[in-house]
Write a structure and sequence with these properties.
Helices cover 29% and strands 23% of the residues. By secondary structure, the protein is α+β, with helices and mostly antiparallel strands. The longest helix has 28 residues, at 549-576. Bound molecules: pterin cytosine dinucleotide. Pterin cytosine dinucleotide binds at residues 200, 254-257, 371, 505-509, 512, 544-551, 664-669, 672-673, 676, 679, 737-742.
Length: 788
């Protein structure tokens, strides 16, 4: 066992199949008699559907069915729910319009689903889809938040006046106003948090199957949370009885949040499978992914920070307008509210905070959680303000952070969260040291000799992940629980199968979860198999998002393993003719304390399944379940430092170095943690420098609908990162761990923009919006030079 316990860099068990092309992704699976679906999508951002003519398509070669919204509506199915009810400041509930799986009266974004064509082959389905004639009456569209809130703007939904879904707030307005009244200075900032497209490497796909003889449905889908999808299908969108509906998420090639949500196509393939009596497969083309996967971010922010003469933060007021898209997606409403507004304390002791979020509908794809989900947006605002406050007061950027850091725990923020642990000074100091912050000016001077502008930036952030006690979430509007389940089955010969409600789609759970159980049961990692992603095998689960899997799912595992040990002690005591209180479990053995008498886990498991010599009154078998409801969020934190060089002639920004020191509590597998940080930082750099989802303001057409117009970060865009961790254990989960999956995308963007602004500060540049493309940076330089 040595070398593969908690804290060991065990190689990822799952990589053997992934790296040899032996994974089983949804599109790889072929069902007997399988047919293929193609979705007819709206070419318009907003239009009335006057007529749909399907005869030509129905008559085309190989076509089995052409189904429209009218049929779906007639069967009273197909309304996709949202997962969180938000109330406005005045207590009124959000406007919650219907979200039909196929539009039947109006289409509300480019790519909206209008019909589904099912045929014998993929090509036949696609060709027949081109024969579906839809008469549209185009309507005026709104594609940006700016346009959506303009007086007289066209309405996406007639019932949402001013296109407003809700007007939410958190914090204390009066206390914040009082803080502003006694401020020495007020630092103001307007910024845009750019809309991004998630771009998982595997496009979404779904296979629907219906067994006429039994009435059983099976949905195989690219989901991050198969049980949640089943719950939403059963209770809301499709109506199939939950016990007759199996949802399987096999190998999934990345999600980054975009595969949390329940999508129309999942329902459509099940419905179509019942209609045609054969399995129906749909796989998104990449262009469909751009226009139908939920997008992320898209905030317009005005923020003000009140500071005293010494740079202490006194009060923060943030006003935001956020884009929800045309429909409310699964986590669309919680992402810009309870995953965002309550993060505005960050690592700072700001005593008064007031955040106002107006969420609006637009004629765009729904906006929902993408890696970080609400938290990168808050961190970005806060860190930009911290930099600007330092600059306006003439205080060093590092020093102003130190002066405001929270230094005692637990710490109750003014915006609902209570941080249990952290040491923000330690991560800051380590990052400054590792990034050679102190000697930066020499590097700047040297770059200047070469005609380059060099800058350095930092961000210090706190994330909240692994949400949250279910009762609290319910009180705040959640329509589901936030616990996780686990089953640990010890087989008669002592090897173990673990069933988890979390879902791994790149995060390495098959390895880290095995490490946890192996460590607790004292067996080798190879003897532990992790099963996930199948509602027929796993008791229940809430899936993977919000960096919850380790801290919630892993904690459930730890609890289930504890129960195994507890039961094992009873069996071992009986076998060893000792009293249960004298038996301890050490290194995979049940030992009578102070003696050399022991039984291995295998001995005990065998006795549990062949109970010939067995304690009276104890059930046979060695299998335990646990449901773990988190007591609080976990609060990873850290410091990211970015160093850039800018070519003033072209505006091209090159990241010279990127240093991360994160506190994710107890690390289970440092190699996987490093990998998660690398991925997250690259995601954050992508948002900061390259990625920008753009809709045409007038027509609502998606302008960045392919890789020709939407830039993802490539290896050549990023340096080799310096990554390390400092641990303050989480105080309320059994592992002491905090989540890591999103920290990179939260910490990176403000560090990058901070570095760019630092490089240009001598010209008078105060802020550069993301993505800091060469054109945008070049224009910032030119306009600063023009202003002299
Ligand atoms: N881990 C650890 N020690 C810690 C914290 C985590 O060893 N202190 C390990 C975990 O055991 C797990 C991995 O790191 O193997 C990530 O753990 P966690 O932070 O719990 O995050 P989740 O597993 O819940 O994954 C979700 C998170 C999110 S929200 C997004 S978005 C994201 C991310 O993970 N999407 C990803 N990382 C991704 N990585 C890949 N390859 N693909 C995605 O789609």
């Amino acid at each position: 066992m040595a070398g593969d316990g908690i804290g060991a860099a065990v190689l990822r068990k799952e990589d053997r199949r992934f790296l040899t092309g032996a994974g089983h992704y949804t599109d790889d699976l072929q069902r007997p008699g399988q047919t293929y679906a193609h979705i007819v999508r709206s070419p318009h951002a907003h239009a009335r559907i006057k007529a749909i003519r399907t005869d030509a398509a129905r008559g085309a070669r190989g076509v089995l069915a052409v189904l429209t919204g009218a049929e779906l509506a007639a069967e009273k199915i197909g309304n996709i729910p949202t997962g969180w009810l938000i109330h406005s400041k005045d207590g009124s509930p959000m406007v919650e319009p219907p979200h039909p799986a196929l539009a039947f009266d109006r289409v509300r974004h480019v790519g909206d689903q209008v019909a589904i064509v099912v045929a014998e082959t993929k090509d036949q389905a696609r060709e027949a889809a081109a024969l579906v004639e839809v008469d549209y009456e185009e309507l005026p569209a709104v594609a940006t938040v700016g346009k959506a809130i303009a007086p007289g703007a066209p309405l996406v939904w007639d019932q949402a006046k001013g296109n407003t879904c809700f007007d939410w707030h958190v914090g204390d307005r009066a206390a914040t106003e009082a803080a502003f009244a006694r401020a020495h200075q007020i630092v103001k900032l307007d910024l845009v948090n750019n809309r991004i497209i998630p771009n998982a490497i595997e496009p979404r796909a779904a296979i629907g199957e219906y067994e006429r003889a039994t009435g059983d449905y099976t949905l195989t889908t690219t989901s991050q949370n198969p049980h949640l999808t089943r719950l939403l299908l059963a209770a809301f969108s499709f109506g199939a009885p939950e016990h007759k509906l199996r949802v399987v998420a096999p190998d999934v090639g990345g999600g980054f949040g975009s595969k949390i949500h329940h999508y129309a196509e999942e329902l459509l393939v099940l419905w179509a499978a019942r209609k045609v009596g054969r399995p129906v497969k749909w796989t998104a083309q990449r262009s469909e992914s751009f226009m139908s996967d939920a997008h992320g971010r898209d905030h317009l922010t005005h923020a003000e920070l009140a500071v005293d003469r010494d740079g202490h933060f006194l009060g923060l007021h943030v006003e935001e307008v956020v884009n929800l898209g045309a429909y409310l997606s699964t986590l669309g409403t919680v992402t810009p509210t309870y995953l965002h507004g309550i993060l505005y304390a960050g690592p700072y002791k700001t005593p008064a905070i007031y955040v106002e979020v107006r969420a609006v509908f637009t004629n765009t794809v729904p906006v929902d959680a993408v890696r970080g989900a609400g938290r990168p947006e808050a961190t970005y605002v806060l860190e930009r303000l911290a930099d600007l406050a330092a600059r306006e007061l003439g205080i060093d950027r590092v020093e102003i952070r130190r002066r405001n850091f929270i230094d005692t725990f637990p710490y109750q923020t003014p915006v609902a969260l209570q941080y249990d642990s952290g040491n923000y000074f330690a991560t800051l100091d380590a990052a400054l040291d590792s990034s050679r912050w102190g000697s930066f000016e020499a590097r700047r001077a040297e770059a200047r000799k070469r005609g380059k502008l060099r800058g350095i930036g930092l961000s210090t952030y706190v994330e909240a992940c692994g949400a949250a006690p279910s009762a609290l979430a319910g009180a705040l509007g959640a329509r589901a629980g936030l616990y996780e389940s686990a089953s640990v089955r010890v087989h008669p010969t002592g090897s173990v199968t673990v069933f988890t409600g979390s879902h791994s789609h790149g995060q390495g759970h098959e390895t880290t979860f095995a490490q946890i159980v192996a460590a607790q049961l004292g067996i080798p990692v190879e003897n532990v198999e992790i099963v996930h992603g199948d509602t027929a095998k796993i008791p229940f689960g809430m899936g993977t998002y919000g960096s919850r899997s380790l801290v919630v799912g892993g904690s459930a595992l730890a609890r289930a393993a504890e129960k195994i040990v507890a039961k094992g002690k009873k069996i071992a005591a009986h076998l060893l003719e000792a009293s249960e209180g004298d038996v301890v479990f050490e290194g995979g053995k049940f030992v009578v304390a102070g003696t050399d008498r022991s039984k291995s886990l295998g001995d005990v498991a065998f006795a549990a399944y062949v109970p010939h010599k067995y304690p009276a009154g104890l059930e046979p078998g060695l299998e335990e379940n646990a449901f773990y409801d988190p007591k609080n969020f976990t609060f990873p934190a850290g410091c990211h430092v970015c160093e850039v060089e800018i070519d003033p002639d072209t505006g091209v920004v090159r990241i010279e170095s990127f240093t991360v020191v994160d506190d994710v509590g107890t690390v289970i597998n440092p190699m996987i943690v490093d990998g998660q940080i690398h991925g997250g930082v690259t995601h954050g750099i992508g948002q900061a420098l390259l990625e920008q989802c753009l809709y045409d303001e007038e027509s609502g057409q998606l302008l960045s609908g392919s890789y020709l117009s939407y830039t993802m970060p490539r290896a050549s865009d990023v340096p080799s990162y310096e990554v390390s961790t400092e641990a303050t254990p989480c105080t309320h989960n059994p592992l002491g761990s905090k989540g890591v999956g999103e920290v990179g995308s939260i910490g990176a963007p403000p560090a990058v923009i901070g570095a760019i602004v630092d490089a240009l500060a001598h010209l008078g540049v105060r802020h550069v919006d993301m993505p800091a493309t060469p054109e945008r940076v070049w224009r910032a330089i030119r306009s600063a030079q023009a202003q002299g």
